[in-house]
Amino acid sequence: MKNKKTKDFILKYALPSLVLELLFILYYYLKYGDITPFNYAHILLYFLIMFGVSAFWAFLWYLQDTVGIVMKSNLIGKIVFILIALGVIYIYKSTGKI
Predict the structure, then answer these.
(1) Can you tell me whether residue 32 is helix, strand or coil?
(2) pTM for this structure?
(3) Which of 1, 46, 78, 86 could disulfide-link 7, Cβ–Cβ 3.0 to 4.6 Å?
């Protein structure tokens, strides 16, 4: 593959979506002992999974960008970020919920 965007699309979106759909099909087979014939539901499921994978990558990019902006700021911004992160970890550890 000469085009980097095509390679990135296949590795980041298409391949994980395909693997997840195959895992869903395998789970259905192990649970019910039957494989459904290929139909439009499989295509719809693939695109829904691809949308979920795309949302995951977008959210991850947003978090990386936000943390990068905070870490480039002054010392006060870094300290506030670390204190908020520690507070969230403490809340999660003490209650099991955020």
Answers:
(1) helix
(2) 0.67
(3) 1
